[in-house]
Amino acid sequence: MELLYKYARIVPFCPFGASGFVGLGLFLFPKATKSLRRACAILSIPSLSVAMFISSNLFWQQIVGHLTYQYSWSWILNNDISSEAGFLVDPLTSIMLILVTTVGIPVMIHSDSYMCHDQGYVRFPVYSSLFTASMLGLVLSPNPIQIHVFRELVGMCSYLLIGFWFTRPSAANACQKAFVTNRIGDFGLLLGISSIYRITGSFEIHELSERFHGLIGNNSISPFFANTCALLLLLGPVAKSAQIPLHVWLPDAMEGPTPISALTHAATMVAAGIFLVARMFDFFEAPPFTMNVISRVGGATALLGATLALAQKDLKKGLAYSTMSQLGYMMLALGIGSYRAALFHPITHAYSKALLFPGSGSVIHSMETIVGYSPDRSQNMILMGGLRRYMPITGTTFPSGTLSLCGIPPFACFWSKDEIIVDSWLCSPFLGWIAAFTAGLTAFYMFRIYFITPEGSFRASNTSSYSPDSFTNNTIRGNNQQESIHQEVGLIPSSVWGGAISEGSPGKTHISDEGTQSDRGPTNYSRKEDSLYPKESDILMLLPLVLLAIPTLLIGFIGVPSPQTETGLDYLSEWLAPLMNPSKGNSEGWLEFLTDSIPSVTISLVGILTSFLLYGPLAISPREPEKDIDPIAKGSSGSFSSFIRDWSYNRGYIDNYYDIISVKGIRLSSNYIYLFDRWIIDGIVSGIGISSLSGGEGAKYGEGGRVSSYSFGSMIGIIPLLTVIIPTYKNDILSIRIL
């Protein structure tokens, strides 16, 4: 058994080795590596499968023995500071290892088909494998320093993947925004780690937590300083898990390829912040004020994310705000001390969101051949509709993730979200109202996405404008010609198409204003019968959807009380027993559990019904597909629906505030500093130089070369000098004469 635990170090090295091998080949032998692009990309799947196999064995050993194994060796050692590196295997680690690997493999399979025609196809598995390896290394880390190192690797990989299509300005800006925002959090995290080591003298999580509790209990440190250290440490998870006020990078991260959005939102980057708070939960629990801050930040994030998702037109951004809201639920659960629910919800949410993002990728992949490769069109839900008719497998699996996020039994998120809502009510009625109201909003906007996208009628086509001659098999060049062809075959109305085609994703085919093409090869437009409507994706894109639909339906039952367990608790409580108080496990019976969940399910059903009345087939508001299908977006100026639309489209105006305070404020202060430096600092230095030059030039003209003139001038200068010196030193001169 000990040998198996020692193999845990291999887990992050499996995907890291695949990433390094392909990346090195791409650097040293680019042509040969690109010629074997499919083989190089597929290498990432078996490497992650090996990691999953080892993780599964570790998880099984944790179930059987509940052992905690830590292996470490000296890393930094001197008289002032000492730190160790190694790995820690406990129930939390084993659960996260299973989560990352089981979500990562289906996403890798999906991306193999989604990205296979992209010119950066080989780069993508290099980045994504390194991304997964960094997260695996993070969850195995036994101390904050090592966690910080792997967090930086996760941040670097997210920068590379969000900006994967870096020639597109929006993608380049998005990756920089994510990088800068997370650097703010990492700076606070580093300050927090340094402060904690200063007062506890240890980097080991369990040891520093015990010492921190002792210092607070003995009043050895002031509560203000203790909370300051904890809040600085919290700044890292706030940025990484997109909590208020450092959430602004998350929707822009959708500029990256869709498969990486699934990894980022399901099991890697955004889960890193929640994992850190869970790993150091004993530390954060010591100062009560910090726990209150965590719960309030989580509740505010959950509510804000839900409101921002209400009127989004971009499919991926709607799901991104959904992730932000669910991350708020997790942070809220941690803040109120509901440790089990806080770890249960990341599991259920990961599989649900891992199903929804590849599903949206399948939809976008099919829409691109119809409306073009620009995200403004291929991800625009206004141009979708009726996709379940043309994409039956995608349209069937998508509702599973939707129902799960809405908290409808028996899907996964129902079991975890309901527990968070109940615990919130028990802790604070204010937080309970926020959690319950957010659940209703979640059901509303998720079914809004469902009714607009898979249901209804397909809105990107206008069959009445069909002409038998309206097709071509050649590459279309030029913006005007592209638009006219689409108008002829009735792909989309010209009012919707508007704008240049050159906004398309650099990683995919699009037509630029100069008539050139991007990486993905020529665009072929076939007859209307073939290209006017979307088609179901291939088997490699559909297989992950089917696989992920299974845990989306069943994984929630690990949190349901079972008579099969020794203590009568649920399986999750049994697994987490070494990390939590067993009395906090769920020992309710099925009937009692379902009875307690009636209020939360009712709230979700009200949200679904409201969405059905506005967006369903029997919507009470008449819609005009060629203009806008969204009743909220059509609200008159000054109405409540108009306020919701503006609030959602403008991201709650928070980005505007950041732009005014940070961007414009820094530029304005930089201009003032520049003027001060130019006119004051440089002016003093330049003034001294100019005065010296002027004095020298003036003295030059006073030189005649005659000694008598110089003597006369010297005498004239000495006389005033003597008139000043003699009165001042008169007494001294008299005393000298007397002596």
UniProtKB/TrEMBL annotation:
Gene behind this protein: ndhF
Transmembrane segments: 6-29, 41-60, 92-109, 121-141, 147-167, 220-239, 260-281, 293-311, 318-339, 430-451, 539-560, 598-618, 710-729
Gene Ontology cellular component terms for the protein in this record: chloroplast thylakoid membrane
Main location: plastid
Membrane topology field: Multi-pass membrane protein
Gene3D superfamilies named in the record: 1.20.5.2700
Positions of the NADH-Ubiquinone oxidoreductase (complex I) chain 5 N-terminal domain: 75-124
Pfam families: Proton_antipo_C (PF01010), Proton_antipo_M (PF00361), Proton_antipo_N (PF00662)
Polar residues bias (residue ranges): 514-525
Signal sequence, renumbered to the chain: none
Subunit architecture: NDH is composed of at least 16 different subunits, 5 of which are encoded in the nucleus.
PANTHER family on file: NADH-UBIQUINONE OXIDOREDUCTASE CHAIN 5
Domain spans labelled NADH:quinone oxidoreductase/Mrp antiporter transmembrane: 143-442
Family in the record: Belongs to the complex I subunit 5 family.
Domain of life according to the entry: Eukaryota
Region (Disordered): 504-530
Function: NDH shuttles electrons from NAD(P)H:plastoquinone, via FMN and iron-sulfur (Fe-S) centers, to quinones in the photosynthetic chain and possibly in a chloroplast respiratory chain. The immediate electron acceptor for the enzyme in this species is believed to be plastoquinone. Couples the redox reaction to proton translocation, and thus conserves the redox energy in a proton gradient.
GO BP of this protein: ATP synthesis coupled electron transport; electron transport coupled proton transport
Enzymatic reactions: a plastoquinone + NADPH + (n+1) H(+)(in) = a plastoquinol + NADP(+) + n H(+)(out); a plastoquinone + NADH + (n+1) H(+)(in) = a plastoquinol + NAD(+) + n H(+)(out)
Gene Ontology MF annotations: NADH dehydrogenase (ubiquinone) activity; NADH dehydrogenase activity; quinone binding
InterPro entries per UniProt: NADH_UbQ_OxRdtase_chlpt_su5_C (IPR002128), NADHpl_OxRdtase_5_subgr (IPR018393), ND/Mrp_TM (IPR001750), NU5C-like (IPR003945), Proton_antipo_N (IPR001516)
Protein name (database record): NAD(P)H-quinone oxidoreductase subunit 5, chloroplastic
Keywords attached to this entry: Chloroplast, Membrane, NAD, NADP, Plastid, Plastoquinone, Quinone, Thylakoid, Translocase, Transmembrane, Transmembrane helix, Transport
Compartmental location: Plastid, Chloroplast thylakoid membrane
This enzyme's EC code(s): 7.1.1.-
